[in-house]
TrEMBL record:
<dbReference type="InterPro" id="IPR027246">
    <property type="entry name" value="Porin_Euk/Tom40"/>
</dbReference>
<dbReference type="Pfam" id="PF01459">
    <property type="entry name" value="Porin_3"/>
</dbReference>
<dbReference type="InterPro" id="IPR001925">
    <property type="entry name" value="Porin_Euk"/>
</dbReference>
<protein>
    <submittedName>
        <fullName>Uncharacterized protein</fullName>
    </submittedName>
</protein>
<dbReference type="InterPro" id="IPR023614">
    <property type="entry name" value="Porin_dom_sf"/>
</dbReference>
<comment type="similarity">
    <text>Belongs to the eukaryotic mitochondrial porin (TC 1.B.8.1) family.</text>
</comment>
Protein backbone atom coordinates (compact mmCIF):
# COMPACT_ATOMS: atom_id res chain seq x y z
CA UNK A 1 0.00 0.00 0.00
CA UNK A 2 1.25 3.52 -0.76
CA UNK A 3 3.25 5.27 1.95
CA UNK A 4 0.86 8.23 1.72
CA UNK A 5 -2.08 5.97 2.66
CA UNK A 6 -3.36 5.96 6.22
CA UNK A 7 -3.28 2.15 6.56
CA UNK A 8 -5.74 -0.02 8.47
CA UNK A 9 -7.08 -0.40 12.01
CA UNK A 10 -4.61 -3.23 12.61
CA UNK A 11 -1.73 -0.76 12.20
CA UNK A 12 -2.67 0.75 15.59
CA UNK A 13 0.18 -0.17 17.92
CA UNK A 14 1.96 -2.09 15.15
CA UNK A 15 5.42 -0.63 15.75
CA UNK A 16 5.37 -1.76 19.39
CA UNK A 17 3.88 -5.17 18.48
CA UNK A 18 6.64 -5.78 15.93
CA UNK A 19 9.25 -5.37 18.67
CA UNK A 20 7.37 -7.39 21.31
CA UNK A 21 5.81 -10.22 19.28
CA UNK A 22 6.98 -10.39 15.66
CA UNK A 23 9.18 -13.39 14.72
CA UNK A 24 9.01 -15.03 18.16
CA UNK A 25 7.50 -18.13 16.52
CA UNK A 26 4.51 -18.25 18.86
CA UNK A 27 2.28 -21.23 17.99
CA UNK A 28 -1.29 -20.70 16.72
CA UNK A 29 -4.37 -22.40 18.25
CA UNK A 30 -4.02 -25.42 15.95
CA UNK A 31 -0.75 -26.93 14.77
CA UNK A 32 0.83 -30.16 13.65
CA UNK A 33 2.44 -32.33 16.33
CA UNK A 34 5.36 -34.73 15.91
CA UNK A 35 7.01 -36.09 19.07
CA UNK A 36 8.58 -33.02 20.72
CA UNK A 37 7.89 -30.69 17.80
CA UNK A 38 4.92 -28.43 17.00
CA UNK A 39 4.88 -26.83 13.59
CA UNK A 40 2.75 -24.93 11.11
CA UNK A 41 3.05 -23.23 7.71
CA UNK A 42 2.14 -19.61 6.95
CA UNK A 43 1.32 -18.55 3.39
CA UNK A 44 0.47 -15.02 2.28
CA UNK A 45 -0.18 -13.39 -1.08
CA UNK A 46 -0.88 -9.71 -1.76
CA UNK A 47 -2.28 -8.11 -4.90
CA UNK A 48 -1.32 -4.45 -4.83
CA UNK A 49 -3.42 -1.65 -6.33
CA UNK A 50 -5.90 -3.71 -8.35
CA UNK A 51 -7.90 -0.48 -8.05
CA UNK A 52 -6.27 2.75 -6.78
CA UNK A 53 -6.16 2.45 -2.98
CA UNK A 54 -7.44 -1.16 -2.97
CA UNK A 55 -5.38 -4.18 -1.96
CA UNK A 56 -6.34 -7.86 -1.83
CA UNK A 57 -4.66 -10.15 0.72
CA UNK A 58 -4.88 -13.94 0.89
CA UNK A 59 -3.49 -15.51 4.06
CA UNK A 60 -3.39 -19.11 5.25
CA UNK A 61 -1.87 -20.64 8.38
CA UNK A 62 -1.90 -24.43 7.99
CA UNK A 63 -3.72 -26.00 9.80
CA UNK A 64 -4.96 -23.08 11.92
CA UNK A 65 -6.76 -20.51 9.79
CA UNK A 66 -7.24 -18.85 6.44
CA UNK A 67 -8.84 -15.69 5.11
CA UNK A 68 -9.41 -13.45 2.14
CA UNK A 69 -9.12 -9.74 2.93
CA UNK A 70 -9.87 -6.53 1.05
CA UNK A 71 -8.20 -3.30 2.17
CA UNK A 72 -8.95 0.21 0.97
CA UNK A 73 -6.94 3.19 2.15
CA UNK A 74 -6.33 6.81 1.24
CA UNK A 75 -4.75 9.71 3.13
CA UNK A 76 -7.48 9.93 5.77
CA UNK A 77 -9.55 6.72 5.70
CA UNK A 78 -8.74 3.00 5.91
CA UNK A 79 -11.38 0.24 5.59
CA UNK A 80 -10.77 -3.50 5.82
CA UNK A 81 -13.11 -6.46 5.37
CA UNK A 82 -12.27 -10.15 5.53
CA UNK A 83 -13.93 -13.56 5.50
CA UNK A 84 -12.24 -16.77 6.57
CA UNK A 85 -11.87 -19.64 9.01
CA UNK A 86 -10.50 -19.22 12.54
CA UNK A 87 -9.56 -21.85 15.13
CA UNK A 88 -11.16 -21.71 18.60
CA UNK A 89 -10.07 -23.29 21.89
CA UNK A 90 -11.77 -26.57 20.97
CA UNK A 91 -9.48 -26.72 17.90
CA UNK A 92 -12.46 -26.30 15.59
CA UNK A 93 -12.45 -24.08 12.53
CA UNK A 94 -15.35 -21.62 12.55
CA UNK A 95 -16.32 -19.22 9.73
CA UNK A 96 -15.80 -15.60 10.71
CA UNK A 97 -16.12 -12.17 9.12
CA UNK A 98 -14.23 -9.08 10.26
CA UNK A 99 -14.86 -5.43 9.42
CA UNK A 100 -12.64 -2.59 10.60
CA UNK A 101 -12.18 1.10 9.93
CA UNK A 102 -9.62 3.82 10.60
CA UNK A 103 -9.93 7.59 10.24
CA UNK A 104 -7.46 10.41 10.83
CA UNK A 105 -3.93 11.28 9.75
CA UNK A 106 -0.48 9.71 9.98
CA UNK A 107 0.02 11.54 13.28
CA UNK A 108 -3.34 10.86 14.99
CA UNK A 109 -5.94 8.24 14.04
CA UNK A 110 -8.98 6.54 15.57
CA UNK A 111 -10.53 3.24 14.56
CA UNK A 112 -12.60 0.20 15.46
CA UNK A 113 -12.95 -3.47 14.56
CA UNK A 114 -15.67 -6.12 14.93
CA UNK A 115 -15.46 -9.87 14.23
CA UNK A 116 -18.57 -12.04 13.90
CA UNK A 117 -18.86 -15.84 14.08
CA UNK A 118 -20.95 -16.56 10.98
CA UNK A 119 -22.16 -19.94 12.27
CA UNK A 120 -23.58 -18.63 15.57
CA UNK A 121 -23.98 -14.98 14.48
CA UNK A 122 -22.33 -13.87 17.70
CA UNK A 123 -19.77 -11.10 18.06
CA UNK A 124 -16.40 -12.70 18.80
CA UNK A 125 -14.26 -9.56 19.08
CA UNK A 126 -15.06 -5.87 19.42
CA UNK A 127 -12.30 -3.27 19.72
CA UNK A 128 -11.75 0.47 19.46
CA UNK A 129 -8.36 2.14 19.35
CA UNK A 130 -6.46 5.41 19.24
CA UNK A 131 -3.00 5.80 17.69
CA UNK A 132 -0.46 8.62 17.88
CA UNK A 133 2.68 8.33 15.78
CA UNK A 134 5.73 10.42 14.95
CA UNK A 135 9.10 9.79 13.28
CA UNK A 136 10.67 8.34 16.44
CA UNK A 137 7.78 7.84 18.88
CA UNK A 138 4.46 5.99 18.78
CA UNK A 139 1.76 5.37 21.36
CA UNK A 140 -1.58 3.57 21.19
CA UNK A 141 -4.59 2.77 23.36
CA UNK A 142 -7.07 -0.04 22.61
CA UNK A 143 -10.22 -1.00 24.49
CA UNK A 144 -12.14 -4.14 23.65
CA UNK A 145 -13.88 -7.40 24.45
CA UNK A 146 -13.57 -10.96 23.20
CA UNK A 147 -15.96 -13.87 23.56
CA UNK A 148 -15.17 -16.82 25.90
CA UNK A 149 -14.32 -19.03 22.92
CA UNK A 150 -11.37 -16.73 22.14
CA UNK A 151 -10.46 -15.58 25.64
CA UNK A 152 -6.77 -16.30 25.27
CA UNK A 153 -6.34 -13.45 22.82
CA UNK A 154 -7.05 -10.76 25.44
CA UNK A 155 -6.83 -10.79 29.21
CA UNK A 156 -9.79 -9.74 31.32
CA UNK A 157 -13.54 -10.34 31.59
CA UNK A 158 -14.57 -11.76 28.22
CA UNK A 159 -18.25 -10.91 28.67
CA UNK A 160 -17.79 -7.15 28.99
CA UNK A 161 -16.06 -4.35 27.13
CA UNK A 162 -13.47 -3.75 29.83
CA UNK A 163 -10.03 -4.72 28.60
CA UNK A 164 -7.64 -1.79 28.09
CA UNK A 165 -4.30 -2.15 26.32
CA UNK A 166 -1.72 0.59 25.94
CA UNK A 167 1.59 0.47 24.09
CA UNK A 168 4.59 2.73 23.62
CA UNK A 169 7.43 2.63 21.07
CA UNK A 170 10.69 4.60 20.88
CA UNK A 171 13.03 4.50 17.88
CA UNK A 172 16.42 4.85 19.60
CA UNK A 173 18.72 4.66 16.56
CA UNK A 174 17.28 4.12 13.06
CA UNK A 175 20.74 3.29 11.65
CA UNK A 176 21.03 0.19 13.86
CA UNK A 177 17.24 -0.42 14.03
CA UNK A 178 17.55 -0.04 17.80
CA UNK A 179 14.17 0.41 19.47
CA UNK A 180 12.39 -0.22 22.76
CA UNK A 181 8.71 -0.95 23.33
CA UNK A 182 6.33 -1.51 26.22
CA UNK A 183 2.78 -2.82 26.52
CA UNK A 184 0.37 -2.66 29.47
CA UNK A 185 -2.87 -4.67 29.74
CA UNK A 186 -5.53 -3.90 32.35
CA UNK A 187 -8.83 -5.61 33.15
CA UNK A 188 -11.21 -3.08 34.69
CA UNK A 189 -13.61 -5.67 36.14
CA UNK A 190 -10.89 -7.88 37.66
CA UNK A 191 -8.50 -5.02 38.44
CA UNK A 192 -5.59 -7.03 37.05
CA UNK A 193 -2.67 -5.37 35.28
CA UNK A 194 0.15 -6.99 33.32
CA UNK A 195 2.97 -5.58 31.23
CA UNK A 196 5.69 -6.51 28.76
CA UNK A 197 8.99 -4.79 27.93
CA UNK A 198 11.07 -5.44 24.84
CA UNK A 199 13.96 -4.17 22.74
CA UNK A 200 15.68 -4.83 19.44
CA UNK A 201 19.08 -4.02 17.90
CA UNK A 202 20.81 -4.84 14.62
CA UNK A 203 24.28 -6.26 15.28
CA UNK A 204 24.89 -6.11 11.53
CA UNK A 205 22.72 -4.73 8.72
CA UNK A 206 21.47 -8.28 8.11
CA UNK A 207 21.43 -9.57 11.72
CA UNK A 208 18.72 -8.54 14.20
CA UNK A 209 18.40 -9.51 17.86
CA UNK A 210 15.39 -9.03 20.14
CA UNK A 211 14.60 -9.63 23.81
CA UNK A 212 11.46 -9.27 25.93
CA UNK A 213 10.25 -9.81 29.51
CA UNK A 214 6.70 -9.80 30.90
CA UNK A 215 5.24 -9.46 34.39
CA UNK A 216 4.47 -13.20 34.51
CA UNK A 217 8.19 -14.00 34.54
CA UNK A 218 8.46 -15.12 30.92
CA UNK A 219 11.60 -14.00 29.11
CA UNK A 220 12.25 -14.44 25.41
CA UNK A 221 14.98 -13.69 22.91
CA UNK A 222 15.64 -14.25 19.23
CA UNK A 223 18.23 -13.74 16.53
CA UNK A 224 17.24 -13.26 12.90
CA UNK A 225 19.45 -13.40 9.84
CA UNK A 226 18.30 -12.18 6.44
CA UNK A 227 19.82 -13.06 3.11
CA UNK A 228 19.49 -10.53 0.27
CA UNK A 229 16.31 -9.11 1.91
CA UNK A 230 14.44 -12.13 0.53
CA UNK A 231 15.06 -15.04 2.88
CA UNK A 232 14.88 -14.81 6.69
CA UNK A 233 16.01 -17.40 9.25
CA UNK A 234 15.04 -16.92 12.90
CA UNK A 235 15.89 -18.80 16.10
CA UNK A 236 13.91 -17.92 19.25
CA UNK A 237 13.83 -19.11 22.86
CA UNK A 238 11.55 -18.55 25.86
CA UNK A 239 11.80 -19.50 29.52
CA UNK A 240 9.47 -18.99 32.50
CA UNK A 241 11.33 -17.89 35.66
CA UNK A 242 8.27 -17.66 37.90
CA UNK A 243 6.86 -21.17 37.52
CA UNK A 244 6.75 -23.56 40.45
CA UNK A 245 9.64 -25.35 38.82
CA UNK A 246 12.08 -23.81 36.37
CA UNK A 247 10.79 -25.11 33.06
CA UNK A 248 12.86 -26.27 30.13
CA UNK A 249 13.27 -23.36 27.69
CA UNK A 250 11.05 -23.45 24.62
CA UNK A 251 12.94 -23.22 21.35
CA UNK A 252 11.55 -22.02 18.05
CA UNK A 253 12.89 -21.99 14.50
CA UNK A 254 11.32 -20.30 11.51
CA UNK A 255 12.12 -19.54 7.88
CA UNK A 256 10.44 -16.93 5.72
CA UNK A 257 10.72 -16.40 1.96
CA UNK A 258 9.58 -13.01 0.65
CA UNK A 259 9.94 -12.92 -3.16
Amino acid sequence: MRKSSLGSYFDIGKRARDVLYSDYAEPPEMQFHYKYFDWNVDLSCELEQAVPGLRTVLECTVPDSGKVELQYSNKHVGITGSVGLLANLEEELVPAATVSGLIGTKVLSLGGSVAVDLSSREIERLNAGLNMSGPYLAASLIMGRVSPSHHNNMRGDEDSFDTVRGSFYVDVNPLTRSAIAAEVNHSISENVTSFMLGAQHALLPSTLIKARLDSYGKAGALIQQDFCKKFYVTMAAEVNFRGRELTIPKLGFSMALCP
